[in-house]
Amino acid sequence: MNQTQSVVETIENVLNDLRPMIQRDGGNIEFVKIEDNIVFVKLQGACIGCPASMFTLKFGIEESLKKLLPQIKEVIPLL
């Protein structure tokens, strides 16, 4: 497994751990890509347009990823 595969696997594992909490509120999140240490995700369901989704994204998902992958700069939702 190369470093990129390891990083993607870690991202997927973090999202899988957080997904049940997000799904309880009617939403979901999908990993799209990582580029220049920026993680791009797609918000789905109730997360689209939800005012709390940015809070969840920055203080939940982004912080969880940075704990395991300190090189991550930020998490950005794609529309």
Structural commentary:
It is a single chain. The protein is of the alpha+beta class. It has one domain: Fe-S cluster assembly (FSCA) (GMP Synthetase, Chain A, domain 3). Helices cover 48% and strands 28% of the residues. It has helices at residues 3-24, 53-68, and strands at 27-35, 38-45, 74-78. The chain has a three-stranded mixed beta sheet. 19% of the residues are buried. The model has no long low-confidence stretch (mean pLDDT 93).
In percent terms, what proportion of residues is strand? 25-35%
The H-and-E topology, N to C, reads as: HEEHE
Question: Based on DSSP secondary structure assignment, what is the total number of beta strands?
Answer: 3
State the domain count.
1
The total of helices stands at 2
CATH topology: GMP Synthetase, Chain A, domain 3
CA radius of gyration:
12 Å
Query: Termini separation (Å)?
Result: 31 Å
The level-1 CATH class? Alpha Beta
CATH homologous superfamily title: Fe-S cluster assembly (FSCA)
CATH architecture: 2-Layer Sandwich
- Overall mean confidence score, pLDDT: 93
The stretches of 5 or more residues where confidence is low (pLDDT under 50) are none
Q: How are the strands ordered across the major sheet?
A: 1-2-3
